[in-house]
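Subgroup meeting minutes
Present: P.N., E.W., G.H.
Scribe: E.W.

1. P.N. recapped why we're keeping a running log of single-chain structure predictions: easier to compare across weeks, and new members can see raw inputs and outputs side by side.
2. G.H. added today's entry (209 aa).
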Amino acid sequence: MGFSTVPCNEFVEVLASKAPVPGGGGASALVGAIGTALGNMVGSLTVGKKKYADVEEEMYELKAKCDKLQADLLTLVEKDAEVFEPLSKAYGMPRETEEEKAEKARVMEIVLKDACSVPMEIMEKCCEAIDIIAEFAAKGSALAISDAGVGAAFCKAALEGASLNVYINTKSMKNREYAEELNKKADHMLDVYPKKADEIFASVLGRLK
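Output recorded in log:
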């Protein structure tokens, strides 16, 4: 099933079911794509306006970046489902004998790395989107700043959501050096970008109230 192309109601229904995918990672990627698109909308409503002629070229550049990020995040909705399936199968592997235990441990390390790679990428894309939305909020059409605020809030939620999918997998890794390396990357993004998204939101709120 192509989770990024099914109708919204179908995605939500499957998400609410006991089906293993989509889960929090895929949902975070979708929310990130929506947040990015809201920033992109600000750019769309800014270009072509005489009042914003001096930033038009920059808006087009930012919009092109958003187009790419949106597409990437939608692809990550699918990828998250793809990497979770082997992980769920690995959890069910037998571990009665020493050989089975060793094989399960070997497979788990491989699939846990894959399962971490997608939410980590979702986090990185959401950080990029927040940086871009900050520019849209500061320089884009004042008539559309509420959309920049919503976009920042969504990308923050997607970033934090994806981080939980990183941490749940690094927690199970036997290779602690690799796990801590991933945790450090995720920690850094969480230290910087939720604050930045909150600042965008507060700035927009201050201009609207």
